[in-house]
Amino acid sequence: MAQLWGGRFTKETDQLVYAFNASISFDQKLCEQDIRGSIAHATMLAKQGVLTAEEKTAIVEGLESIREDVRSGELKISEDFEDIHSFVEATLTERIGDPGKKLHTGRSRNDQVALDMKLYTRDEILILDGLLKGLLQALLKIMEENLVTYMPGFTHLQKAQPITLAHHMGAYFEMFKRDRGRLYDIYHRMDTCPLGSGALAGTTYPLDREHTAGLLHFGSATLNSMDSVSDRDHLIELLAALSTIMMHLSRFCEEIIIWNSNEYQFVEIDDAYSTGSSIMPQKKNPDIAELVRGKTGRVYGALIALLTTMKGLPLAYNKDMQEDKEPVFDAVDTVKDCLILFTGMISTMVFRKERMEESAKNGFTNATDAADYLVNHGVPFRDAHGIVGRLVLYCIEKDISLDELSLEEYRKISPVFGEDIYKAISMETCVERRTTLGAPGRDAMKTVIGFCREYLDKE
After folding, report:
1. Which of 236, 251, 213 is nearest to 115 (CA)?
2. To the nearest whole number, what is the mean pLDDT of the chain?
């Protein structure tokens, strides 16, 4: 058992205790970040005269060789070591000798792992941001192609008013745009480097922490060594942001599942993103959408797990904090997979435009516009509301839509109706008259699409 702290102890740690304590089975994921931080630390130590130029060169070259060998698969990370830090340091010492033993000067595993997790979070945020941008581009393409694809808008999962597919997709564009903003905020709020904080009280070595921060592209060094090693706010914020992304994906998936049902038939999901049934040959199931919806709970669980771990910890570092890694790693990988698959699914999905428009007509989504017609002809709104309510009841009894009523039938309920009622309640009129910013009308949507395109192009 390779460990860095045996001098204080007079007998071997129990094997079960060692295994329970070890983290290398999962923190080996931080190998790249650990080496990056160690190179910066060694470079700073040489600048401060703690290491000689020769020692620094040997350490940096040794670390770079470890990184390349791990990447190529020539060097396997051994689980005989307690954690990734001890693996890297022991391998380095084996390769370059005594200079390797000096790497840890002025550093604790507490500030080392805090740095590694910050570097990991930054790296993954950039990847997640790119995947969200790809999803936004896919949504914008659907918006641009469906300015006049009429469909019902819903409240309470009941047909409410006619909108367009472009308008519906635009709602999700705004959600995922905010998700990118949350990731951006986290990235910049965690822009401080904890390395050099030591175990909790700094160090007596003449470290230049600002220089280390600059080498690792942080804006500055952290200002309190105790907070530096015990802070996991950025991971909690990341999991909260990931949970919100998954919530948005799950809502979207719920709608796709509904739209894909036999009752709606709004969409046809590509075969590549569907599965069949082992006994029912007619089935084409929206499994990807269902799995994304299901995995949302998994990401929520990671957030709750870390919040619960951190809620009772006194300052500064406690071993409980080792429990931050597995849920964070799993949540990040889950969200990345979901974004990739979801973007592929909606990019290949076929929208049944005629079916969508027919559904809007048959759901009385133009009832509000019929009431507005009466108001524009001098009828008080409350009276108009009641008149159209009676019209809808009459249509339900006859199993027809408002569009299918004869003018005589209209006038039996209110003589105010004229021939122009049919144009007033057409899907095109109902949508295109809504021209305020953010509404589904074509001109309003073109303005918003321009904003969306500008937003994506400026990144």
Report:
1. 213
2. 94
Pick left, alpha or beta for residue 94 (phi over 0 → left; psi -120 to 50 → alpha; otherwise beta): alpha
pLDDT at 5: 47
Q: Which residues have a catalytic role annotated? A: 156, 277
Strand 350-351 with 267-268, pairing? antiparallel
CA distances from 134 to 111, 272, 320, 327, 410 (A): 35, 19, 37, 25, 49
| Residue 49 DSSP one-character state | T
Q: How many residues does the chain have?
A: 459
Q: Would you state the pLDDT for residue 153?
A: 96
Q: Which domains does the chain have, with CATH numbers?
A: 6-105 (1.10.275.10), 110-152+164-357 (1.20.200.10), 359-457 (1.10.40.30)
- Distance CA(165)–CA(339), nearest Å, equals 21
- What is the pLDDT at residue 327? 97
Q: Which residues of 422-438 are buried (b: 16+ CB within 10 A; e: fewer)?
A: eebbbbebbbbebeeee
Residue pLDDT, tens place only, 130-181:
999 999 999 999 999 999 999 999 999 999 999 999 999 999 999 999 999 9
pLDDT for residue 284 = 83
Return averaged pLDDT per consecutive 10 residues of the chain, 459 residues in all.
53 75 93 98 98 98 98 96 96 98 97 98 98 98 98 95 97 98 98 98 97 98 98 98 98 97 95 79 85 98 98 96 97 98 97 96 90 96 96 94 94 95 94 95 98 93
* CA 388 to centroid of chain Cα atoms: 44
Q: Quick one: tokens of 455?
A: 């937003």
| 169-199 pLDDT, tens digit each | 999 999 999 999 999 999 999 999 999 999 9
Q: Could you give the dihedral angle defined by the CA atoms of residues 97, 98, 104 and 109, in that order, rounded to the nearest 10 degrees?
A: 50
Contact assessment for residue 402 and residue 383, using Cβ atoms and an 8 Å cutoff: no
Residue 104 CA to residue 107 CA, distance in Å, equals 5
pLDDT of residue 2: 52
31 near 67, Cβ under 8 Å?
yes
Report the amino acid identity of residue 199.
A
Cα–Cα nearest to 140, from 163, 172, 164, 115: 172
Q: 192 has which bridge partners?
A: 220
Q: Is 425 within 8 Å of 403 (Cβ atoms)?
A: yes
